Amino acid sequence: MTDSNFSKGMTGLIHHPYTPPAGFDAPQPGVFKASTVYFPSVADMRQREWKDKSAYTYGLHGTPTTYMLEERLCTLEGGAQCVLVPSGLASLATVALALLKSGDELLLPDNAYGPNKALAEGELRHYGITHQLYDPMDPDDLTRKINARTRLVWLEAPGSVSMEFPDLPELVRRCKAQSVLSALDNTWGSGLAFKPFDLLGDGSGEQGSLAVEISAHALTKYPSGGGDVLMGSIITQDPSLHLKIKLCHMRLGLGVGANDAETVLRSLPSIALRYAAHDQTARSLAAWWQKQAQCAQLLHPAFEGAPGHAHWQALCDRSPGTGLAAGLFSVMIAPRYTQAQVDAFCDGLKLFKIGYSWGGPVSLVVPYGLASMRQSWPAHLKPGTLVRFSAGLESVQDLLLDLHQSAHAHLPLV
Ligand SMILES: *Cc1c(COP(=O)(O)O)cnc(C)c1O
């Protein structure tokens, strides 16, 4: 036991008897950092339980800071349990490693987040786990591809880069009809545009309502909001499913740093305000694009005529005019413009930075070679060169001027 005899010299710097008074209370929770966690006795150490978050055993298994972030993320998404991982991609990988074994099959939408496909083609294939791609806009294609070996179906709403919005409730029904687990990459919706565990909006999940089994989320995007943190979460409602993921997470030695968890805790209270602001800006920019002759097709699920718009309305816009849609959209630049012209347009932007990821304060732009990212050119997409925009928090007027000046300079009207 520490006592005042040890308050002097070097030992005093390590075993000092002073403890600050309890009861400190302030807007932001304290930040707890640890590898080692103390036990008051050996007996206590032997019976400590960490899997149900009733106590602490080791920094990797959780601290007050990570437990608090997990609980708040469950509130955001409407789930019951949460596991934190070091990136959004790690959340996708951990789900796969926790739930799949050699001989199993995984289904991915053709428009899945690219690195999730790469994982299936790389490590998962090496481990004897096969995969097929399904057309997310055709629920019958999903049903056809589910077979006796299918264990997990990934869902995304909307799809990465091409932004088509699937009939998510119907895809989940198709999975349930064949008793296959459905896992949603919920990064776009972020727990705000729709509730992954209450897809029909008729209950809080659990009993009755239609729900995915797993919601994975790149906290790197809106929950962080700063473009400066990498983190992911895996949220579930079924305790036994959570335990499988939690045990795999422990065995892989995954964890998140306390300062990163603190940053996300600091950003969470403003997520709804930021999400709505990014959404508004993105819609103003998309509306501008829709009027430009260089735009062959606008890919923004909240816009009439965009692929899957009716599915977005049904899921996210139940009281018409109130639906949310994040700050992300793509534009199919007409095929008469060369890749070099489109690249020059992107290079010519001053406020939009060229860079991956999204959800931060700075607007971003990336041209994508979509043809190499899909099995075949999707029937609902016009030909052209795809450019994806992520709306930041700059003044809309300035962003519009920026788009205008670079389009004028590099995408000449004929
Ligand atoms: C960014 C993103 C990820 C990966 O998140 P990282 O933290 O960058 O690994 C996964 N899925 C989607 C849909 C994303 O946008």
Helices and strands in order, then pairings?
Elements: H1 9-14, H2 42-47, H3 64-77, E1 81-85, H4 88-99, E2 105-109, H5 114-126, E3 130-134, H6 139-145, E4 150-156, H7 168-177, E5 181-185, E6 214-218, E7 232-236, H8 239-252, H9 258-267, H10 271-290, E8 295-299, H11 309-316, E9 328-333, H12 339-348, E10 353-354, E11 364-368, E12 385-390, H13 396-410
Parallel strand pairs: 2-3, 2-4, 4-5, 5-6, 10-11
Antiparallel strand pairs: 1-7, 6-7, 8-9, 9-12, 11-12
Helix pairs in contact: 3-9, 4-5, 4-8, 6-7, 12-13
Summarize this entry quickly.
The chain is an alpha/beta fold. The protein folds into 2 domains: 211 residues, Type I PLP-dependent aspartate aminotransferase-like (Major domain) (Aspartate Aminotransferase, domain 2, 3-Layer(aba) Sandwich), CATH 3.40.640.10; 140 residues, Aspartate Aminotransferase, domain 1, CATH 3.90.1150.
Q: Characterize the largest beta sheet: strand count, sense, and whether it forms a barrel.
A: 7 strands, mixed
The total tally of domains equals: 2
Low-pLDDT parts are none
- Biggest sheet strand order reads 1-7-6-5-4-2-3
By secondary-structure content and strand pairing, the structural class works out as alpha/beta
CATH homology-level superfamily of the largest domain: Type I PLP-dependent aspartate aminotransferase-like (Major domain)
- Global mean pLDDT: 96
CATH class value of the largest domain: Alpha Beta
- What's the total helix number? 13
Helix/strand order? HHHEHEHEHEHEEEHHHEHEHEEEH
Q: Estimate the helix proportion, in percent.
A: 25-40%
CATH topology name of the largest domain: Aspartate Aminotransferase, domain 2
